[in-house]
Hints:
Elements: H1 2-30, E1 34-43, E2 46-55, E3 59-64, E4 70-74, E5 77-81, E6 86-90, H2 96-99, H3 102-111, E7 115-117, E8 121-128, E9 131-138, E10 144-150, E11 156-166
Antiparallel strand pairs: 1-2, 1-11, 2-3, 3-4, 4-5, 5-6, 7-8, 8-9, 9-10, 10-11
Helix pairs in contact: 1-3
Amino acid sequence: MLRLIITFFLTFFILNSYADNREKIIEKLNNTSNLSFDFEQNVNGKVEIGNCIIEYPKKIYCKYKKSKKILVSNGKSLVIKTISSYYLYPLKKTPLNLILDKNYLIEKIYTLNEKIIDNSYINYTIKENDNNIDIFFDINSLDLIGWQTKDIYQNSTLTLLYSVSKNQIIKRELFKLPTQN
């Protein structure tokens, strides 16, 4: 009987802490209109660094340091511009369409199972269409700290966020799609 009571209380406290995490993460997302951050991105072992600004919903501007690549979404289209190339994609065909939609993330977090990784990260896994997306939050601050995606070609991309600032004053023209050279 004592074991049953102990098991009940442990289960209650564990489930309650997950619910607390979930509610606090959702509250933080609800109170965030934009994020500015430095990032490290690993695409199949190739690491790049840079900085980004996200404005919800669905806008992003990223500048990669070494390659000088620029990634921009105006909420409908995504442009990746390098020194020698220009790629234009419909945003809805990319995993960023889901990652940059905080209302979608909130809706999913309500329904997904939470995983604790190394007592450091909270992870939610989203499976939607051809996208597998892992979203990571810091276990202490409950801030968004990264995501991992697999695209339709099975390329794995891990993006880690550092030096995150929220709700900064940002220039709207950042999200204007760059023109082709």
